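<context>
A single protein, sequence plus fold
<entry> Chain with its tokenised backbone below
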Amino acid sequence: MEGILAALVFIADIYAIIKIIQSSASGLQKLIWVLVVLVFPLIGVIIWFFAGPGGKGG
């Protein structure tokens, strides 16, 4: 079960990084968001989903 959850988090991280790179945010903002997602894989994706470039929060 842990392996499945880890795989889902990994897939979500890859998806988030691709979307961050494709966003219209500045280069520095993209770098910061990618680092947040890489350093905090699960929390970073959740934060990005709600507050990231092009996110639902603004």
Remarks:
- The chain has one domain: 2-51.
- The CA atoms of residues 9 and 56 lie 20 Å apart.
